Amino acid sequence: MGTEGHNRRVVAGRYRLEEKLGRGGMAVVWRATDQLLGRSVAVKELPYDESLSAAEARRQRDRTLREARAVAQLSHPHIIVVHDVVEDERPYIVMELIEGGSLADRLAQRGPVDATEAARIGIALLGALGAAHAAGVLHRDLKPDNVLLENGTDRVVLTDFGIAQVAGTPTLTENGAFVGSPEYTAPERMSGVRTGPESDLWSLGALLCAALSGESPFHRDSLGGILHAVVVGDIQPPAQVGPLLPVVRGLLERDPDRRLDADRAERMLRAFRDTGRTPMSPPPAYAPTVGDVPRRRPQDLPGLRSPLPPVDLPGPDRPEEPFLRQPTRRVLIAALLVAAMAGAGISAAALLREESTGDGGPMPTRSATPTPTPTTRQASPSTSAPTP
Which residues contact 216 (CB under 8 A, 6 or more apart)? Predict the structure, then answer.
């Protein structure tokens, strides 16, 4: 039960809330002190909303607790750590406190990163996604807001698992509602055809473009424009992507069965990091870092479908050719766009309502990270959290 102590709230008689780090559409993240262990932590609070029905409040609570369970089962240096869950009149998630801002903050304050830094971030996120996918967890909202960059350590941390899908558990998405960030959502998920580990990899491709150029390649002024760009428009990576173009092209392959898989993407990024050049195909010598979580094939994971045949990357004599020129695939994609637009019609208003601060979960829109204070930006798994 929350109590007042020295003008500061104490949750569960243990966690003293000290400073609001940010607020998302459905959660507040606090800097706090664990008085039992004497350490700083981040506490994510789901505020009480009197306007919600009992069923809606229960869904919010279930989503928050599901997020905590999803992250608690993951152990990886590039995934946020959950320490505790407190069930009071409202739920709280207690996480590690990461001093630093998000990748989105970094881009807003200092502009795009160079190719070497983007490759470093990509390698770390591939390790995090590999660990999550091996545990049957799909993140479903990979974007710069949900990647934290820890001050002083160069650690990259994936956070905000608020709309994650866990194999073997029911989803909490409302009927007809879309959850996620449209500019970073794979076309097959946008149109409701399927979702799997490969959908998170598409999001990583869009994130790498944003890291290198400052914004998603699918950024448009309207939701309809974003849908068209993601599902059917020609994909033209910005010029800044050049050094990592083979990786980005492979990840932004619209056909999920032809998309670059995590192991091959990591090998290509490691080759670039070591040689300054990205090979058109993954070199066999570059294995994941020693100590990384072993990966299982996505198609072997319970409840997840992801056949991953070889990726047909454009040849060096066709570097500027837009993706998906094939007429037959255009017809298929056009059909997907119709399905996407039909589905989006149900939830377009909700998507726009929380486009910049969604909190992940059954609410239709991109999950958001809390608005940060000028110094530290910490987010929990269902809002944004600090990243190294």
Answer: 143, 183, 184, 206, 207, 209, 210
Per-residue pLDDT tens digits for 3-61: 554 557 899 999 999 999 887 656 789 999 999 999 999 998 877 667 777 787 777 77
Q: Which amino acid is at 267?
A: R
Return binding residues. 44
- Is the torsion defined by CA of 169, 348, 257, 184 positive or negative? negative
Which listed residue (34, 84, 141, 160) is catalytic?
Answer: 141
Q: Which two tokens mark 105?
A: 């903050």
Q: Tell whether 73 is covered by a domain.
A: yes
Report how many domains make up the chain. Answer: 2
**Residue 151 domain boundaries:** 100-353
Asked whether residue 182 falls in the same domain as residue 37, the answer is no
Report the b/e string of 121-155 with b at 16+ CB within 10 A: bbbbbbbbbbbbbbbbbbbbbbbbbbbbbbeeeeb
Please confirm, yes or no, whether 359 is among the known catalytic residues.
no
